[in-house]
């Protein structure tokens, strides 16, 4: 198992002598088999391969050493493992198919309460390198998520016509709580990407569970709002005759109704919209999920476009873990907007998960009104999630 540790809070000179000391110390204690300083802007990073017996306690006795502080930067970079919880579902199956094709994934663990062996057998016949394994039922959950770098959660029930995402709370809140409790034990450093609705509440639920377990790290939990971005980009490209693959539209706020806020003033390439276009396009993006729910007429909600969005976001997390920092919109614990503790904005993803919250940027007066209206709705959703765990 490879662990990346960064030595912080020391001067360049101290770092230089420390690197020598640390390598000697580590070897003398026979706690690692290799180590080497790597260049990094924020202080030397040591790539350390721990003996298997120590892999569960990655920092060992090196948490602090002569004034330098160790920060665990990431783990298991050499063979990334992704666990997909809810793998047999409408989203889970096509998402598994896309993840099986992601070259950054070495191990793909499929977990569900039903049908996982069949899905895994099917996917394992695809000639890509990711190794597929199947886990079924709560007795196998620990093994499914153990050692995962990223856990993606689409487990839970979807909407039927006439339902809001909040109507799913009673069923899905408990599912997310229990899954995250297992992650807290088996892979507390994993990045957790939550697809299960209502995302506005399930993300705070996950945070509260991690807090209770004493492994809270606000940089590691993500509400997947990528589908809102994907939809906004598709609709804008269609309306304006743009190349969809080169069109970017930030979507901020949350992931339900009026909390979904497309920033049409920030579309790239720079695009002008009439007031009429903005007033039609904004609600279409906000209600796009309902458009799919109604068209499927009782057979569920978006699965194929969601799988694409989930695979794209998972790949972005994995690139970040590798040190390829990149920017995505995601619903996370955030101070970007006053008066609310969770908000989706563009965030910089990197080796620790969220490296930087980039904020809402310059918005139009109309968009500011949408932000103001979303805050109280989001607060209600957040409080409901927090209260559920407490
Ligand atoms: N974030 C988004 O943009 C977005 C978009 C679409 C759907 N969703 C949400 O994703 C969720 C899944 O949707 P779907 O269409 O795949 O539903 P689905 O019913 O087709 O699949 C859900 C899967 O979860 C499994 N499951 C249920 N309880 C479980 C548990 N305790 N542990 C593990 N697996 C469990 C089920 O067996 C099933 O295979 C829903 O909550 C839906 O609202 C989110």
From TrEMBL:
GO terms for molecular function: L-malate dehydrogenase (NAD+) activity. The keyword Oxidoreductase applies. Residues 81-223 form the Lactate/malate dehydrogenase N-terminal domain. Keywords: NAD, Oxidoreductase, Tricarboxylic acid cycle. Pfam families: Ldh_1_C, Ldh_1_N. Transmembrane segments: none annotated. InterPro entries: Lactate/malate_DH_C (IPR022383), Lactate/malate_DH_N (IPR001236), Lactate_DH/Glyco_Ohase_4_C (IPR015955), Malate_DH_AS (IPR001252), Malate_DH_type1 (IPR010097), NAD(P)-bd_dom_sf (IPR036291). GO terms for cellular component: mitochondrion. One of its GO terms (biological process) is malate metabolic process. PROSITE patterns: MDH. Its EC number is 1.1.1.37. It is an enzyme of class 1 (oxidoreductase). Homodimer. This is Malate dehydrogenase. It comes from Diploscapter pachys. The lineage of its organism: Eukaryota, Metazoa, Ecdysozoa, Nematoda, Chromadorea.
């Amino acid at each position: 198992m490879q662990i990346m540790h960064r030595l912080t809070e020391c001067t360049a000179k101290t770092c230089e002598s420390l690197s020598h000391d640390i390598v000697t110390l580590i070897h003398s204690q026979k706690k690692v088999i290799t180590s080497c300083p790597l260049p990094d802007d924020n202080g030397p990073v040591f790539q350390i391969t721990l003996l298997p017996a120590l892999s569960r306690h990655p920092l060992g006795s090196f948490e602090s050493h002569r004034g330098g502080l160790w920060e665990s930067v990431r783990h298991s970079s050499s063979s990334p493992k992704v666990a997909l919880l809810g793998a047999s579902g409408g989203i889970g199956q096509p998402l598994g198919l896309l993840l099986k094709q992601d070259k950054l994934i070495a191990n793909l663990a499929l977990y569900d309460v039903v049908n996982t062996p069949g899905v895994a057998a099917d996917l394992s016949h695809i000639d890509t390198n990711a190794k597929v394994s199947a886990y079924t039922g709560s007795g196998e959950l620990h093994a499914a998520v153990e050692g995962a770098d990223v856990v993606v959660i689409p487990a839970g029930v979807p909407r039927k016509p006439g339902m809001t995402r909040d109507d799913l709370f009673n069923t899905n809140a408990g599912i997310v709580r229990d899954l995250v409790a297992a992650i807290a034990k088996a892979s507390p450093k994993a990045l957790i990407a939550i697809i299960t609705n209502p995302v506005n509440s399930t993300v705070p639920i996950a945070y509260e569970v991690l807090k209770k377990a004493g492994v809270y790290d606000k940089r590691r939990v993500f509400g997947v709002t990528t589908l809102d971005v994907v939809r906004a980009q598709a609709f804008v490209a269609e309306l304006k005759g743009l190349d969809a693959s080169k069109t970017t539209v930030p979507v901020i706020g949350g992931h339900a109704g009026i909390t979904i806020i497309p920033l049409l003033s920030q579309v790239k390439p720079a695009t002008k919209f009439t007031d009429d276009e903005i007033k039609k396009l904004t609600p279409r993006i906000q209600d796009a999920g309902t458009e799919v729910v109604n068209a499927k007429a009782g057979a569920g909600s978006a699965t194929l476009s969601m799988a694409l969005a989930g695979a794209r976001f998972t790949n972005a997390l994995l690139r970040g873990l590798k040190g390829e920092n990149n920017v995505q919109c995601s619903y996370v614990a955030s101070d970007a907007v006053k008066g609310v503790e969770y908000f989706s904005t563009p965030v910089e993803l990197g080796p620790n998960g969220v490296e930087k919250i980039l904020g809402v940027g310059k918005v139009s007066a109309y968009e500011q009104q949408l932000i103001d209206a979303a805050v109280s709705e989001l607060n209600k959703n957040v409080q409901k999630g927090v209260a559920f765990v407490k």
